[in-house]
Inverse folding.
């Protein structure tokens, strides 16, 4: 059946993934909220007292103290923002106070934990995978979840559980099979079930890494990186291997997961970036931050069309858009404001019809849109990428992306996005099989244009049988309601 999610989760809005303390999150979200006329949903990492990838699971008290943190959470809630707090559901540090209590080692995936020197402040720790089938670990994670929710979170992002191969446990004393078929899946599901039991149904949500095929009934949101596939270097093995660093990829990402599971899963596009930097914990050592975030030439360049392409994919695939690694300086940058204005227009289109259009429509797939292609300059810069691994590639790309949706009731809706800074002529034809679903051989259509420019002309639209063609204004989103 269709999803039954908390309204704030499924409703219109822009996700912002934030790393850092409560004072900074309030400043960034306040500035962003003024620029984008849509609700905000905050995916908050590094809210906890320990450094990221540090003394897990010594998360409490939260960063800057319980009182300052609680005040920030209240301010976000009063501004109508949904907040989910992330923590690691799979790994711990042998240097944490929790580990030193003495019980934890017996529930780790590996039976021998190597001795490592004590890390200094701001350094990350070697982390140990815990057995997801261990009742002890499930109890610990569910207690952390309950305590996190008590801080005022609307949901939890449980990191590192879905698809984590390091959670294959070979210790039969934990009460499970060793190497049995489906053992990892059962471990993942049982851990998610333990956390799910601590949520208030219909009010609090659970988010996991994707693809979460084996647990769609247990998670409300799943992160997907396909919309930013080039930036995330999704096909590194195919694009490297002796090819020139700037050679264009021979693949194009497609929303396969959304095409199959849109009616049962809600996807959030992770990886879309305004300023190309990778996220970092402000409490990391200065050396580690500098190594990843020095603003060398590749990072400083704007890559505007790459951003428009990532945002457009998110919209036409029916995913919820998320901006990663946002800072106050970026929000106040003029180039960033242009990108955010485009994203705001795209989100208005996606939530057309009281926010019910795409979330509660059937995804009929991508449209074959014909338009003169453009060259798009793209930065490859996935999380954890070293400076010498960053590179620029060029993709020959249609400036118009489109998808087809079957909303409740009659007719279909076409979503078309022009990522180019110039007006583009396009044509799109509905396949006979799709026309057959409508019981029609020709279409009647009405359109609506969403543009960051208030004085931009409306799209010019003509219909001839099963073909729709016309002109799209620059950086605009066009909804076509066809019957």
């Amino acid at each position: 059946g269709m999803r039954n999610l908390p309204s704030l989760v499924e409703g219109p809005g822009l996700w912002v993934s934030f790393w850092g303390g409560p004072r900074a999150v309030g400043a960034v979200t306040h500035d962003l909220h003024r620029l984008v006329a849509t609700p905000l949903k905050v995916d908050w990492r590094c809210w906890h007292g320990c450094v990221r990838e540090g003394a897990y699971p010594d998360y409490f008290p939260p960063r800057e103290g319980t009182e300052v943190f609680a005040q920030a959470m209240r301010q976000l809630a009063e501004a109508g923002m949904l907040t989910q707090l992330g923590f690691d559901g799979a790994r711990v540090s042998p240097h944490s106070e929790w580990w030193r209590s003495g019980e934890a080692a017996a529930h780790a995936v590996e039976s021998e934990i190597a001795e490592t020197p004590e890390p200094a402040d701001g350094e990350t720790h070697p982390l140990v995978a815990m057995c997801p089938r261990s009742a002890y670990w499930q109890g610990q994670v569910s207690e952390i979840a309950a305590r996190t929710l008590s801080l005022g979170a609307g949901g939890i992002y449980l990191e590192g559980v879905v698809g984590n191969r390091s959670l294959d446990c070979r210790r039969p004393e934990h009460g499970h099979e060793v190497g049995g078929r489906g053992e990892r899946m059962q471990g993942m599901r049982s851990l998610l079930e333990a956390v799910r039991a601590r949520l208030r149904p219909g009010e609090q949500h659970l988010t996991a890494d994707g693809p979460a095929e084996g647990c769609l009934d247990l998670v409300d949101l799943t992160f997907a990186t396909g919309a930013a596939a080039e930036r995330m270097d999704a096909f590194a093995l195919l694009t490297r291997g002796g090819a020139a660093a700037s050679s264009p990829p021979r693949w194009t990402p497609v929303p396969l997961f959304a095409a199959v599971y849109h009616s049962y899963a809600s996807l959030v596009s992770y990886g879309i970036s305004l300023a190309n930097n990778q996220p970092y914990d402000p409490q990391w050592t200065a050396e580690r931050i500098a190594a990843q975030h020095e603003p060398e030439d590749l990072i400083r360049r704007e890559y505007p069309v790459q951003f428009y392409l990532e945002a457009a994919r998110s919209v036409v695939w029916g995913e919820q858009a998320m901006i990663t690694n946002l800072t106050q300086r970026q929000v106040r940058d003029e180039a960033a404001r242009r990108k955010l204005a485009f994203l705001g227009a795209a989100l208005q289109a996606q939530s057309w019809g009281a926010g019910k259009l795409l979330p509660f429509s059937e995804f009929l797939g991508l449209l074959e849109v014909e338009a003169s292609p453009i060259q798009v300059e793209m930065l490859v810069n996935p999380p954890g990428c070293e400076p010498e691994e960053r590179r620029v590639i060029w993709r020959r790309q249609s400036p118009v992306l489109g998808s087809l949706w079957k909303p409740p009731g009659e007719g279909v809706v076409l979503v078309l996005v022009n990522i180019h800074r110039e007006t583009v002529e396009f044509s799109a034809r509905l396949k006979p099989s799709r026309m057959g679903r409508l019981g029609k051989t020709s279409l009647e259509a009405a359109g609506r244009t969403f543009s960051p420019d208030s004085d931009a002309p409306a799209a010019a639209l003509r219909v001839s049988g099963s073909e729709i063609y016309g002109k799209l204004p620059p950086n605009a989103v066009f909804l076509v309601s066809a019957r």
